[in-house]
Amino acid sequence: MNLKKLIYNILLLLFVGFYSCNPKANQEHAGTKELPVITLQRDSMIINTDYPARIEGKVNVDIRAQVEGYISKIYVEEGAFVKAGANLFKIDDRTYLEQLNTAEANLRAANAALSNARLEVEKYSLLSSSNVTSDFQLRTAQAQYESALANVEQQKAAVETAKINLGFTLVKSPVSGYIGRIPKRIGNLVSRGDVQPLTTLSDISQVYAYFSMSETDFLAFNQLYQGKTIEEKIKNMSQVTLVLADGSIYPQPGKIEMINGEFDVNTGAISIRATFDNPSLLLRTGNTGRIIVPRIENNVFAIPVLSTMDVQGKIFAIRLTQDNRAERIPLNIAGKEGDYYIVRTGLKEGDKIVSQEIGTIVEGEVITPKMN
To answer: Would you give the distance in Å from CA 13 to the centre of its chain?
Structure first.
């Protein structure tokens, strides 16, 4: 009996030792993990991509002096709204008024000389027809008349130039818009060669939002819309959204209306312009923001970001095999929308992805799926 008991105890110890050193046996004894699992289904997703943008008024006009002189009057204030044709600045016009008077006096003298030359032609025409004088004197009188006529035309042009210069002394608004900064005040000397304009006038009833897109993004963006030409594709493009500097969404949707004809060789990006209505005049030239460009991805999988792991810059998920063993699978990310990665390839419909605690899972481990 003692020998049998001893043999039994030895076998029992060997069995316990083997069992404790066998992870698979331990796992089966302890029970498998029960974790939430997502069954993948293909779907269509709208992916929003944002780009930094700068805002400009539809019309931005630098108001500059066309003649030299001292500012004698300013009719507007900075930031004021003016209509097209409104008076903005007055430049001292005394010099130009005298130039006009001189030009008009020269014109009157030229007209008098023309009348005298005409009389000479008439006189020598009568004398020549009566053979009293030679034809040479008549031709000379005719030449003097032509010269006097040309001088009249020249003086008329001088009068018109003087009138234009005099008109330039009253600077008017070419378009309706808002007045910008006025750096020069009454008494300052201005001229056509000034680097700094008198002011800037902005029409902001509509604004342009300029942003740039990389070559890769543009190629993908270009394939989304039907049309043989860029113009046709632009007509079929979706509306875009403007996010303001404070993170709020601008209420008016925008429309892409222009794509530059070439990429910037320095940045490798192409410039795009979207137009937004600005009825409340909230947007001004110089504003910044972000343009949200939507695109539709068909037949893709949406995988929660929390269901993935980042390993050395690559995104992985834990997929269950047919026998519910965990395998780490790399994901081909097409984009990100909110808390989801968009995946085109590398997975198939019906695959089961562990949605939680994936950092604790050992590859090859058996998982009991808990469907969400």
So the answer is: 78
